[in-house]
């Protein structure tokens, strides 16, 4: 079935001439007025392309019309129209125009006599509404035409400006633009955890036929389900996001916005959009029809939508969305803190992210000490249920609090990354013997580039007003090991974890004038053009060491 544009345009000229002629000569009857209304709608309409998805922009309360024509020549000519609202509900209808014998629209070539046309104008065209819909669901109308006919599509948005997509096809035998949905398009929730939800859905017939160009994409959000991918993209944009004009879930590369995070692992593309109403997560997982959504928040309701996407055309079809609520986070086990006792807490970022310690005060003033050993940890301290401290730990942290006798303190530690994190904790009255030595203003080690030679390096570090013991260690490393050594260093470990050959020296020093409490040391016997990792350990009265920040220095290659 083809579209006969020549057949269409020829009557248009006759219709225009008829309209102009009779606006002057003939009195207006109800049938003529109806005819002119039909002409007005016709002339203010656009041609709807066959076999192509058309984006239509609608202004509030202003109808927009498109038309198409089916010509004679085939008995029972099939056609289908699919309309996808991309935001608010819309109204749309299909009008069928049938012209009686002698009507200008059925004029034959050569029948261009103006007098004949004016006579035939008295017989109005027959108009019937064959389909009408109001809502925001994706709707498809399939029809059969057994005669030559003109169809008019009218679209209207009464809520606000919006856009839709329209797809007309008269070729129903050579495949579909949109991927096919299974007979049962529901998404099943087969598992719910504290931070995960497992979903499964039936395979699309399109996956079996076009596996290389078809894939499933999942949208996760905390607001509601979406009936089309077009609607989901519009909602994300209205939240302040900027998405690419093409399919947001396709694997085509594009620049991400600052509030977007892309994760690519195990052939999965994940895009996380940080929006005001929570995060919107998009995951494309190829042709797998089972997926476990990770890293969700406990006790939170999420909405899940699966789209089957044709990567060649960017066309998509939506499964029936579902929702699930993650389980509540179990109450963490609480460990009692005793006066002066040190507890070493290790948090597995993937399994155990929380750890709680409880301390009951026997004095009004309480002194907490935290030494971050590895990773990143968030600290929250409450007194009788009220928050008194909340921060990210860094290095060594002293926290002094004043309250009442028998106040109950709850210390909550939370890992903020997936790798292991650890921290040492001590609680004691203010007059208790300090666990850690007096610390300098900075725990950084400085090296002097001008004093570097092929065989030696000079380093310096700050001391305190208290006489303390300092031990220097060195370790030869390769350039590609530097980042790993600095990131994996356990800042709570002492010299007992080091090899004896790495020890350089130990020394005591202090200065009552803090501005002069600086010491330097030249380490000799090194190899030219080599990287060395230097560590300094500070020992206080209790014997527990504090490790300065590691320093990497390279000796000169030529001298």
Automatic annotation (TrEMBL):
GO cellular component assignments:
extracellular region
State the gene name recorded for this protein: Ndnf_0
Compartments it resides in? Secreted
Q: Has keyword Glycoprotein?
A: yes
SMART domains in the record, alphabetically?
FN3
Query: Which SUPFAM superfamilies does the record associate with it?
Result: Fibronectin type III
Kindly indicate where the leader peptide sits in this chain.
Answer: 1-17
Instruction: Specify one Pfam family.
Output: NDNF_C
At the highest ranks, the source species' classification is: Eukaryota, Metazoa, Chordata, Craniata, Vertebrata
List each copy of the Fibronectin type-III domain by range: 179-316, 437-545
Q: Which UniProt keywords apply?
A: Glycoprotein, Neurogenesis, Repeat, Secreted, Signal
Q: Name the species this protein comes from.
A: Mystacornis crossleyi
PANTHER family cross-referenced by the UniProt entry: NEURON-DERIVED NEUROTROPHIC FACTOR (PTHR14619), PROTEIN NDNF (PTHR14619:SF9)
Q: Which GO terms describe its biological process?
A: nervous system development
Give the protein name, as stated in the record: Protein NDNF
Q: Name one GO molecular function term.
A: heparin binding
- What job does the chain carry out? Secretory protein that plays a role in various cellular processes. Acts as a chemorepellent acting on gonadotropin-releasing hormone (GnRH) expressing neurons regulating their migration to the hypothalamus. Also promotes neuron migration, growth and survival as well as neurite outgrowth and is involved in the development of the olfactory system. May also act through the regulation of growth factors activity and downstream signaling. Also regulates extracellular matrix assembly and cell adhesiveness.
């Amino acid at each position: 079935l083809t579209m006969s544009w020549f057949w269409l345009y020829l009557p248009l000229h006759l219709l225009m001439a008829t309209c102009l002629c009779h606006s002057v000569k003939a009195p207006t009857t109800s049938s003529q007025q109806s005819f002119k209304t039909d002409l007005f709608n016709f002339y203010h309409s656009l041609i709807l392309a066959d076999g192509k998805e058309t984006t239509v922009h609608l202004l509030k309360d202003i109808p927009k019309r498109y038309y198409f024509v089916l010509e004679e020549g085939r008995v029972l000519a099939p056609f289908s129209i699919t309309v996808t609202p991309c935001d608010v509900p819309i109204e749309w209808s299909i009008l069928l125009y049938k012209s009686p014998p002698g009507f200008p629209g059925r004029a034959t070539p050569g029948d261009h006599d103006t007098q004949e046309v004016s006579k035939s104008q008295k017989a109005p065209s027959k108009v019937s509404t064959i389909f009408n819909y109001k809502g925001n669901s994706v709707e498809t109308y399939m029809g059969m035409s057994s005669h030559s006919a003109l169809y008019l599509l009218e679209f209207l948005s009464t809520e606000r400006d919006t856009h839709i997509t329209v797809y007309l096809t008269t070729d129903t035998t050579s495949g579909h633009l949109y991927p096919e949905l299974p007979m049962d398009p529901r998404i099943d929730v087969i598992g719910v955890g504290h931070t995960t939800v497992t979903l499964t859905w039936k395979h699309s017939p399109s996956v079996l036929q076009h596996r290389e160009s078809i894939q499933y994409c999942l949208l996760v959000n905390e607001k509601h389900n979406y009936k089309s991918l077009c609607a989901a993209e519009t909602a994300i944009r209205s939240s302040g996001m900027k998405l690419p004009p093409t399919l947001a879930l396709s694997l085509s590369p594009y620049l991400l916005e600052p509030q977007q995070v892309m994760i690519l692992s195990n052939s999965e593309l994940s895009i996380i959009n940080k929006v005001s109403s929570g995060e919107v997560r998009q995951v494309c997982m190829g042709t797998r029809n089972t997926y476990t959504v990770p890293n969700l928040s406990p006790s939170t309701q999420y909405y899940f939508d699966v789209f089957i996407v044709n990567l060649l055309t960017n066309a998509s079809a939506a499964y029936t969305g579902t929702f699930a609520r993650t389980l509540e986070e179990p109450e963490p086990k609480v460990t009692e803190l005793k006066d002066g006792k040190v507890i070493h807490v290790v948090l597995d970022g993937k399994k155990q992210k929380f750890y709680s310690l409880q301390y009951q005060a026997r004095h009004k003033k309480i002194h907490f000490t935290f030494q971050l050993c590895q990773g990143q940890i968030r600290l929250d301290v409450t007194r009788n249920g009220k928050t008194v401290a909340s921060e990210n730990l860094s290095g060594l942290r002293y926290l002094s609090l004043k309250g009442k006798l028998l106040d109950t303190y709850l210390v909550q530690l939370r890992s903020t990354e997936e790798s292991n994190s650890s921290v040492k904790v001590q609680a004691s009255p203010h007059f208790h013997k300090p666990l850690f030595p007096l610390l300098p203003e900075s725990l950084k080690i400085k090296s002097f580039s001008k004093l570097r030679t092929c065989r030696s390096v000079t380093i310096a570090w700050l001391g305190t007003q208290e006489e303390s013991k300092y031990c220097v260690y060195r370790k030869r490393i390769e350039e590609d090991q530097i980042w790993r050594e600095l990131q994996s260093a356990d800042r709570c470990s002492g010299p007992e974890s080091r090899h004896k050959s790495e020890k350089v020296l130990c020394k005591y020093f202090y200065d009552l004038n803090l501005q002069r409490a600086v010491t330097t040391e030249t380490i000799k016997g090194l190899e030219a053009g080599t990287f060395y990792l230097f560590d300094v350990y500070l020992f206080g009265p209790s014997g527990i060491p504090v490790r300065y920040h590691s320093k990497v220095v390279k000796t000169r290659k030529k001298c």
